[in-house]
Amino acid sequence: MTQSSPSPDNKIRNIALAVAAAAVSAGLFFATRNDAQTLTAAKVAERAIPLEQAQANGKPSLVEFYAEWCTSCNSMAATVATMEEKYRNKVNFVALNVDNEKWVPEAERYQVSGIPHYVFIDAKGKILGNLIGEQTNAIFDANLKALSGGKSIPYAQAQAGQTSTFRKNQVKVQ
């Protein structure tokens, strides 16, 4: 028995299938290797301004207490980054890592017992509200819109979302 060579139409189809399979494989490979592009609380914190600067510049502030190991903090990173992008000219975004003993006095002052913990502070330093745990974009947006406009915070004590427990004995010197 002799085999016949594939027809030109079959060759084109086979090449198209091979190219499509390669494209799908490459897409899956890069979709599962986006570690460098994954937004984390620590990456958001790198863009935050120092607490001392926020206290001195006359703008209202959102102070976030987070930890790198906190899954809820990392889940909220995209929301915080989106809000920071939207309100950066009107609101200070401050991030304090609870694993740094430098921030223990602030964690005690703001009664941080779970993270992420967000404190909304007006331009004069008055605490207007807190959000604890994972929250929706809508809640954050409403609070930041009010904060940036000098109005009362609509979700001053929103129902706590999923949190990671913060215990003082977890604090490490950094």
Brief synopsis:
The chain is of the alpha+beta class and 174 residues long.
Structure write-up:
The chain is α+β, with helices and mostly antiparallel strands. It has a single domain (41-170), classed as Glutaredoxin (3-Layer(aba) Sandwich), CATH 3.40.30.10. It contains 6 helices and 6 strands; from the N terminus they run αααβαβαβββαβ. The protein has helices spanning 8-32, 41-47, 51-56, 71-87, 104-109, 137-148, and strands spanning 61-66, 92-97, 114-115, 117-121, 127-132, 164-165. A 4-stranded mixed beta sheet has the order 2-1-4-5. A hairpin with a 5-residue loop joins strand 4 (117-121) and strand 5 (127-132). The termini are far apart.
Keywords:
two-stranded antiparallel ribbon, Glutaredoxin, 6 helices, 174 residues, alpha+beta, 6 strands, 42% helix, four-stranded mixed sheet, single chain, elongated
How many DSSP helices? 6
H-E string: HHHEHEHEEEHE
Unreliable parts: 32-36
Adjacency order of strands in the biggest sheet: 2-1-4-5
- CA-CA gap between termini: 76 Å
How many domains make up the coordinates? 1
Instruction: Look at the structure and give the mean pLDDT.
Output: 84
What is the subunit arrangement here? single chain
What class, by secondary structure content? Answer: alpha+beta
Number of DSSP E strands: 6
By CATH reckoning, the class would read: Alpha Beta
Helix content: 40-55%
Write down the overall geometry: elongated
Q: Which sheet architecture does the biggest sheet show? A: 4 strands, mixed
CATH topology description? Glutaredoxin
The CATH superfamily is identified as Glutaredoxin
Strand content: 15-25%
CATH architecture title: 3-Layer(aba) Sandwich
